[in-house]
Design goal:
about 800 residues; six-stranded mixed beta sheet; four-stranded antiparallel beta sheet; 34 helices; globular
Length: about 800
Amino acid sequence: LAEKYKKDYDVIIVTGDKDFAQIVDGQVTLYDPSKEKVTDYESVIEKYGLKPEQFVDYLAICGDSADNIPGVKGIGPKGAAKLLQEFGTLKNIYENLESISAKGIHDKLVESKEEAFLSGKLAAIVRDVPLEIADERTFLFDKSKLKKAVNFLKEYELNSIVKKIVTREDTATSKLSTGEKPALKKEFKAEFDFAEETKSQQFETILIDNKEDFQKMMEELKNKDIVAIDTETTSADPLMAELVGISLCANNNKAFYISIAHQMAENVAKKIVLEELKKNFQGKLLIAHNIKYDFMVLQNAGWRIENSVFDTMIADYLLNPTSRHALSACSKRELHHEMIPLSDLIGKGKKQVTFDMVPVDQAAEYSAEDANVTFRLHKIFESKLIQASLFDLFKEIEIPLFHSLAKMELNGVKIDTKILAEISKRNQKKIGELTREIYELAGSQFNLNSPQQLAKVLFEDMGIEPTKKIRTGFSTDVTVLEELTKEHEIARLLMEYRQLAKLESTYVTALPNLVNPKTGRVHSSFNQTVASTGRLSSSNPNMQNIPIRTELGKEIRYAFVPEDENSVILAADYSQIELRILAMLSKDEKMINAFRNKEDIHRETASVIYDISKENITSDQRRYAKIINFGLMYGMGAFRVSNELGISRKEAAEFIDNYFSKFPTIKNYIDSVIKQAKKDGYVSTIFGRKLYLPELNSSNKMRVSEAERIATNMPIQGSAADIIKIAMINLNEKIKDDPDIKMIIQVHDELVFEVKKDKLDFAKELIVREMENALPKEYSDIVPLVVDVGIGNNWFEAH
């Protein structure tokens, strides 16, 4: 373009790239906006000691590592400039090599002749690309077209640019809302037009605080097929929360807030509100952000939602599994709208109040915004789910699942606090013994829970060689202590102390405080929008983190008991589901046959690896095979395998190589998954769940390695997560109205139930059938799913 138009125009190229110095001449200059610097013909000479037309040859000699241009090895910018000042061009330099007296320079030029001329070709900007341009008006910047860029910019998350466009909109709109006519310069006309066009994004908040207005609102909403709903309550715990208000939105321009239980305000009776909504909202699609919470609150208040629903939080989770899914985050990302923080209304810390104490006009504005944003997000997310081929997963698994999770949370589990008190007494004694032993080995007393004090004791006072440096000094995390246990007894004691102290604070002393005073049971929250693989997580308490193998972890499970002596705990666990999925996906015949013949898969693997009969496999050989079987699914490399097996890294690498040589189908499968992921940008499960992995194409090898590890694991772990979700959905449908069979806990591949003894046989047969049939036949025909069932008077006995 510069070549074409410099005959008739002065051309300015806006760039900070020094390579463009080669096309500077009397009509072409450069402008670097970051430095506010203009580079013209004289500037190039002043900076490099060369004319712009020599710049390509300059790069040909000194190279450019940023652009992977090799240049002449050993000659830098000063040497290149000196040669060109003397000989003029690269061609002349090589035609006059014998005139160069400096032997080192001469030899380097000779050795790198081919690279020098190749570098010249790489560095040269091509100036004769054929262009088909009607006239120069094509290049005129029309600000009225800015708004057309917004969707493109949003898609590629260039949000800082969008913000600059939208800021003009906000400024103009704020003046319009006050009735003030903005004084606009001509060049800002486009931004003002954009503001006018998007003014419809603003909405009216209507407070409903009496029966008459409530009936008018219901009349207005009765013909609406889609309504966004949001509840306001006194607590984040849905079982403890009292309903304060409900916001509703059925179009972009208007939202209602129904005041139900505000202090010092007019309210509409809760009973009337819920009865009317239940009666008049049948058949409507309800939209909410975190519908499970609203569902539980409204059910406790008297309205059990049986409508079709769309959860914008779940939709965002499927589309962006590694992002934040709070409504404010979705609003900012998708609508470029900053929402009112809840803390602005209820405060923080000791000064925080419950929502029923918030002035009703402020509450209406806040809650109506929630409903309005949720309504606006619905169409955006629905379209994106369809485009990403995720809508079926959303509709058939994730949305039905919230009913199962809500029921499980409402059920809760009974905790025997006496057992926990006995465990705590033993723990405190053991913690005291460990503390004294650690002090004795350290030769001093210090705060065992302070990383800084511990680092000083270990690496300064005791002189132990540190292994990992962090910003605040030397690390004492679990990986460091694990490494130190090989030679230092104090590290082993510290690890035991930490584990004991964590379990004591997280479960033993915490669980009694989590017992709901209304139900006498603990109601954990099961979260479906946290783990990027699709796995469920839980909180208050976190069921997934209770250790399975440690004695204390087992003891804690003793405290999870049935409601009465007429009931038992039933635990149903998928047997080696992830290995079975690996066999299905890889189609490895050895693994498939082992599962079909109900063989011990780890013994079978060991037999193949060591090339000896199954009968002669030692316990260590089976253990090695088990670690490698599971490790490879998690992308475990030689370093991790060496730690797990207690062997050298070289031996671990040989062990992995041997495994893959005996199981080439699995190696091919893993390689193909990574290759396809690099091409697609994501990996997916059997059911189409996706996890995007941009780091697969990073220039950072460590990031690539971690992304490859995730790519290897996610299709397997994510498919297992989807399978147990399907089982939960189907089981909930079968037992939702049966008070004698309660699903109470989900942990990884295990479902835990509380069952009346006289329903035990029926429950066991139903649970096994539904769990084993949760996989599509095309996969279960390859390798069947198997469920192990345990029954006991507590979770430990059943597990």
